[in-house]
Fold this sequence. Notes:
Layout: H1 12-27, E1 40-45, H2 51-62, E2 66-70, H3 84-91, E3 97-102, H4 107-114, E4 119-124, H5 130-144, E5 150-155, H6 162-171, E6 177-182, H7 191-199, E7 204-208, H8 211-214, E8 220-223, H9 234-240, H10 248-251, E9 259-261, H11 282-300
Parallel strand pairs: 1-2, 1-3, 3-4, 5-6, 5-8, 6-7, 8-9
Helix pairs in contact: 1-11, 2-11, 3-4, 5-6, 5-11
Bound molecules: N-carbamoyl-L-aspartate.
Amino acid sequence: MRHLMNPLDLSVEELDQMMDLACDIEAHPEKYAHACDGRKLATCFYEPSTRTRLSFESAMLSLGGSVLGFSSADSSSAAKGETVADTIRVISGYADICAMRHPKEGAPMVAAMYSEIPVINAGDGGHQHPTQTLADLLTIRKLKGRLGNLTIGLCGDLKFGRTVHSLINALVRYEGIRFILISPEELRLPSYIRDDVLMANNIEYKEVIRLEEAIPDLDILYMTRVQRERFFNEEEYIRMKDFYVLNNEKLEAARPDMYILHPLPRVNEIAVEVDSDPRAAYFRQAKNGVYMRMALILTLLEVKVC
Length: 306
Ligand code: NCD
């Protein structure tokens, strides 16, 4: 039985196969409409979510399966003090696969240790978010036609932004990837990613504070929200929250084929005027998340569709 905690749990070959599968699902949805008949997905979300939970549910429903779950810790027995280990033992008897989001780093990993069904990490604290990475990779591959030889700008909260950590883990395995890390000093990439992933793999990167300085060199600009819920004090969040605001004026310096990604939700970091720019790809990215989650469910449940 396989779980997904980190993009590194999937080989580059498997990622490529899943992206091909996702494209086939998008082109021929009817072929997959009954692939998971009779199967159930449990969504155990101890933290807020719109896209991740609903795209998982949409994915399972589009495969003919059913969904059950909870969308906040308050509405589950966690509020009574139940451990994740006990919860997943019980859920293992109710469903065939589980997607779990939790504010504590490592909680889905603990669940996986006690689970009898595949567990997917749907975001654990400020740590990892591998299924967002699946959506990100498919989006980049569709837009640029490749995942290697790209200069990727990661902008915003690189400290707490789990989508950034997972995306870096996945992309360092492709040839010729360069990163420009754009953040205020306070929100720099943690050393466990900078040293243990970027430096350990000899990946070319530079750290800058000003977005304007980085923008002309980029193939992809990945914007992120300042992660309010991970700050120890609100004043610090307020000081940081509008550090970057991408608008049409800043985009004038970008290449005509530099696409803008964002895992969403957006707060102020991308002005609404940018949405109508053909390079704004974040809503397409959210839709790609459904196809990739369908491909992931099929892969983990070992369902083959001919
Ligand atoms: C992200 C997350 O939950 O980490 N959202 C998402 O799943 N698309 C990004 C965020 O909340 O800022």
